[in-house]
Specification:
Structural class: mainly alpha
Radius of gyration: 19 Å
Length: about 150
């Protein structure tokens, strides 16, 4: 009995749905051109940070499984993993620079818990992702400019 071939459109449906969601949101923001543009708010950044950290974990797993059989591809995925962490760190910083609704802006203080969601959520998520990246990279790697890895 022959095995049916996999149709590319039928693979990874959740990844395709996440990509479609991001594209839809981007188009919706672009279509608001008739109204004055709204700056990003904390809720947008919290959701975007959650998305980036989920992709960060996914890249971590892909790099781990790809590196043994394909070292060069694994290195590139590991570099993408580091760069995605840098993007998430910048989103986290921007989150804390935006004013909180109805209260003064909060700062990330790992030694004490923030007041509550979404601050608690984004800081907790960021610290957990930071733990993963620091186990696998050096401080020099984290400060390196955003260029491709060495071949």
């Amino acid at each position: 009995m022959t095995r049916p071939s996999v149709i590319p459109g039928d693979t990874h449906p959740y990844l395709r749905a996440a990509t479609a969601g991001v594209r839809h949101h981007t188009r919706a923001l672009a279509q608001q051109a008739t109204a004055p543009p709204r700056p990003a708010d904390r809720l947008h950044l919290d959701v975007l940070h959650a998305h980036l950290t989920a992709v960060h974990q996914f890249l971590d797993r892909l790099a781990e499984t790809t590196r043994p059989p394909h070292p060069a591809a694994g290195r590139h995925l590991a570099t993408a993993h580091t760069r995605l962490w840098q993007a998430a760190a910048e989103i986290h910083s921007a989150f804390h620079l935006l004013p909180a609704e109805g209260a003064e802006a909060s700062t990330c203080r790992p030694e004490r818990l923030p007041e509550g969601p979404p601050v608690l959520t984004i800081c907790h998520r960021h610290l957990a992702a930071g733990h993963i990246i620091r186990r696998k990279t050096t401080p020099t790697d984290l400060r390196a400019p955003a260029t491709s890895c060495a071949r």
